[in-house]
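Async update (no meeting this week)

Hi team, since we skipped the sync, here's where things stand on the single-chain job. The sequence we agreed to prioritize is pasted below, unchanged from the tracker. I ran it this morning and attached the output directly underneath so nobody has to dig for it. Comments welcome in thread, and please keep replies under the output.
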Amino acid sequence: MSYKELAKNLIDQIPDSKMYYIVAYLQGAAVPEEIPNADTIEAIAEVKEMIKTGSGQHFQGTAEEFTDMLLSEET
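Output:
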């Protein structure tokens, strides 16, 4: 019996009062995995290189402070 067949058989044994949890879990599991595009792959490689070499910039502060810094650089 495949895992899919086993899951379908088990669903029949779950009381309706618990189906909400099962459906929520299944919805999360049913989301297809995203394949990163070339820009994302390049960014990940850049971060790995920065970690490896100790280069790059480290920000200490809150997310709000970081956002303010980024927005001030755009102008």
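Quick observations from my side:
The chain has four helices and no strands.
The CA atoms of residues 63 and 69 lie 10 Å apart.
Reply here if anything looks off.
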